[in-house]
Design goal:
2 copies of one chain form a homodimer. Chain A is mainly α. Chain A has one domain: Farnesyl Diphosphate Synthase. Chain A is 75% helix and 1% strand. The first copy, chain A, has helices spanning 3-18, 26-36, 43-54, 60-83, 95-98, 101-119, 124-151, 159-184, 189-216, 219-222, 228-231, 237-245, 248-258, 265-278, 281-302, 311-322, and strands at residues 88-89, 92-93. Chain A has a two-stranded antiparallel sheet. Chain A binds chain B through residues 24-25, 27-28, 79, 82-83, 101-102, 105-106, 109-110, 112-114, 116-117, 120, 124, 127-128, 131-132, 134-135, 138-139, 142-143, 145-147, 149-150, and chain B through 24-25, 27-28, 79, 82-83, 101-102, 105-106, 109-110, 112-114, 116-117, 120, 124, 127-128, 131-132, 134-135, 138-139, 142-143, 145-147, 149-150.
Chain lengths: 325, 325
């Protein structure tokens, strides 16, 4: 990580550490503290600070809103884990498991208000713009989560529907963070749009890599148990493309696996993985990721500022896609 | 209801009807529509409009934030019903019953963002003040709900703790609505504080009346089944005072009833109600309500504007306490 990335991450952590998180009633606030200090990489607020820095803005003006976005992100994790019945988050019990669902609902709700408190620390002349951006983003993230849940009961999901879902669920938040940083730094509407597009496409690329890692990643480096998406019958990019491309034998295997006629999890994973490999989807997914990454880079390149100013942001994006951080 | 109250309620409903509530994905938005159009009386936004009108403000400037507060209020109902396992809301299945808990969580979350969207329609010069007021209020409402849940497992709750809980859970939101109306109308900080105090104390009085109605109210007029708080072992004002004042025989009956050693619900209710009546708590609760109402009126009286300007607000508060509307 470059010294700039380290320095800005440190700044974000200092700000977060300065928030009085544990107050009364502590049943409400302990889960907030637990969730916010659970080893998150602060990627989203870092993006806001980097974008602000790139456009020569005052980073202190963006730290509040950036942390607000991070608190909002952690709020979505707290609620999503209930809905997705995900018992673990970054290797530790998720809030609804450590406490219970009611705690995760209410502590999440209070985090939402805390998020806006920090967003409201934005310079007054930008408050309306940043608040509108934030609200639009929150609504889109909720829509993305709803589409994701809808997919569970749909027979067929198209690639287009899938990309739209991950755009909403995953990509618009980093995009909004970048745009917030740019707006507060005084970037033009066109520059703000370009950096948003950069973030959105990096976000989509990131999620496709995430799907890939779940199946082809190294369990030890990646931290999650390999094949979780297959076990959960998740309609990922790989799943969707496999059903599109499979011949009749492969289709039979996929159907057997995903309708749970294969009960042994290891067997199910290896059966699906075999089809994915036969169809060359391990490489196609990486190509698709690269396609979105190229669109992202093209947007960033269009921003008319010195190339070296964009280096830190490019490094962060590359790190995300390489999963080196 | 006075023609002014009717006219302003109509204005609020027109604004709400103009919001495009049912969008895609409809699984997310249908519950929002259902919840927002479930026969709510619009008391909170009405308070905001009345306060604005009282200080000669432009009502159109406050309608957005007022509706934002109403959407937030409905969001809390959607999440509280999950936590409190309340199957009915205004006589109809609550969202988590009609759909499921995940739907109530996510549709609630999107309502929170929608609430802020409408709050953001406030005139720009007041946005920061109104947003800070809103965030503070949301956090307090969450704290109130947490205290209420904590009380379930506490052996002893004092009257002071109880009043503080209902202040947070119930009273600060109408108080904030009134203050928002006053601020947007250009009222002084002192006037804004006084109208906030009025709302807070009316809110506390209202909740004590609500506790009273649950046991001594007429089931047909009130709409809720009588004695629900007793069945749920809720630590209401009546419960707390009864345990404080009871002699040893009454104490034995209360303990038997509330530790569920009495299994028949009718028997449990009549046993508790008998003790409440013996202790004169039916009258004491009304006296306590009147005490808070008097504090409220005293705050309103201190505001230095013509008496007749305060009439509509007084009428609304009185209607609430009489439950005529």
């Amino acid at each position: 990580m470059s010294s700039k990335l380290k320095e800005l991450t440190e700044k974000i952590n200092q700000y977060i550490n300065s928030i009085e998180l544990v107050k009364q009633p502590e049943e409400l606030y302990l889960p907030v503290d637990y969730c916010l200090n659970n080893g998150g990489k602060r990627v989203r607020p870092l993006m806001a600070l980097l974008a602000c820095d790139m456009f020569d803005g005052n980073i202190d003006h963006v730290t509040g809103p950036a942390v607000g976005m991070e608190i909002f992100h952690n709020f979505t994790l707290m609620h999503d884990d209930i809905m997705d019945e995900a018992p673990l988050r970054r290797g530790k019990p998720s809030v609804y498991k450590k406490w219970n669902a009611n705690t995760a609902i209410l502590s999440g709700d209070v985090m939402f208000a805390m998020a806006i408190q920090h967003i409201a620390k934005c310079p007054p002349e930008h408050l309306k713009t940043i608040l509108d951006l934030f609200n639009k983003t929150v609504i889109e993230v909720c829509e993305g989560q709803q589409y994701d849940m809808n997919f569970e009961t749909l027979d067929k999901v198209t690639e287009e529907q899938y990309i739209n879902m991950i755009r909403l669920k995953t990509a618009v938040l980093p995009a909004a963070c970048l745009q917030a940083g740019a707006v507060i730094a005084g970037a033009s509407p066109e520059e703000s749009r370009l950096i948003y597009d950069f973030g959105e496409n990096v976000g989509i690329a990131f999620q496709i890599k995430d799907d890939w890692l779940d199946i082809f990643g190294d369990e030890n480096t990646f931290g999650k148990k390999s094949g979780g998406d297959i076990i959960a019958n998740k309609k990922t990019w790989l799943y969707i493309k496999a059903f599109e491309m499979a011949n009749e034998y492969q289709l039979r295997d996929l159907r057997n696996a995903f309708t749970n006629r294969i009960f042994n999890p290891e067997e199910k994973i290896s059966m699906v993985k075999k089809v994915y490999l036969e169809l060359g989807l391990d490489q196609s997914a990486l190509d698709k990721m690269e396609e979105y990454n190229s669109i992202a880079i093209a947007s960033l390149d269009k921003i008319d500022i010195a190339k070296e100013k964009k280096e830190d942001l490019k490094e962060l994006a590359q790190n995300l896609l390489d999963r080196a951080i």
